[in-house]
Amino acid sequence: MKINSTPAKITAAIFDMDGLLIDSERMSLSCWHDAAQELGHSISEHVPLGMIGMHSSKTEDYLRLELGEQFPVAALRSRTHKIYLERSQTAIALRPGVIELLDFLQKQQIPCAVATSTRRSIAIHHLELTNLLHYFQFAVCGDEITHPKPAPDIYLKVIAKLNVNAADCIVFEDSNFGAQAGHAAGCRVIMVPDLRPASAETQALKLEIVESLHQAKQILESELA
């Protein structure tokens, strides 16, 4: 765990959603495998893992590269999406430490927002279902930006809406794409890897990498006490 020795002041906090606030990535992985089986195929574990943090506009090219031009990629994406929507209608677990961290930031009067690659209709549903939406001033979603993570666009849009300086924003991310996007936007980033560890490229950015949001809260408590 790398701790920022000279942290800037924190005027806003920005959160990714999938794999960071909610435990949706594991459900998503199973949907890809189950959809492939329904179509009479099997896919290697690394294939859906490689899409963690990836914007939906990038997945078709990725899947064709990984699975080959003859694989029914369009049918796989469509069936996976339907299975995911069905399974996410009733219950989605929170990641450890989410409520504790959000409550702490709320008590500190630090405004929070969401920056997620997920499309708005799904993101708002998930945040409402998990009773998290009220913690956030707003969300910027994947269907509202042109260049997805790891480009900084989504974070720059959130920063502009918050009307704060990027250097005074703290970003919480679980994916490499997201952590790189937050860093490129000029924010302080705390990465909490979920299913995939920080890559060499991400580690080279010298971000703060912790095991849980509980640890992230401890860091902020020590700085804001």
Fold blueprint:
Layout: E1 12-15, H1 25-38, H2 46-49, H3 56-67, H4 73-87, H5 98-107, E2 112-115, H6 120-129, E3 139-140, H7 153-162, E4 169-173, H8 176-184, E5 188-191, H9 200-203, E6 208-209, H10 213-224
Parallel strand pairs: 1-2, 1-4, 2-3, 4-5, 5-6
Helix pairs in contact: 1-4, 5-10
Summarize the structure.
This protein is of the alpha/beta class and 225 residues long. It is built from ten helices and six strands.
Largest sheet: 6 strands, parallel
Please give the order of strands in the largest beta sheet: 3-2-1-4-5-6
Mean pLDDT: 93
Uncertain stretches: 1-5
Shape: globular
Distance between the termini: 20 Å
Rounded to an integer in angstroms, the radius of gyration calculated over CA atoms is: 17 Å
Order of helices and strands: EHHHHHEHEHEHEHEH
Plain-language structure description:
The chain has 225 residues and is of the alpha/beta class. It has 10 helices and 6 strands. It has a 6-stranded parallel beta sheet with strand order 3-2-1-4-5-6, sandwiched between helices. Helix 1 packs across helix 4 and helix 5 (98-107) packs parallel to helix 10. The longest helix has 15 residues, at 73-87. The radius of gyration is 17 Å and the shape is globular. Residues 1-5 have low confidence and may be disordered.
Structural features:
225 residues, alpha/beta, Rossmann fold, 2 domains, six-stranded parallel beta sheet, 10 helices, 6 strands, 44% helix, globular, disordered N terminus
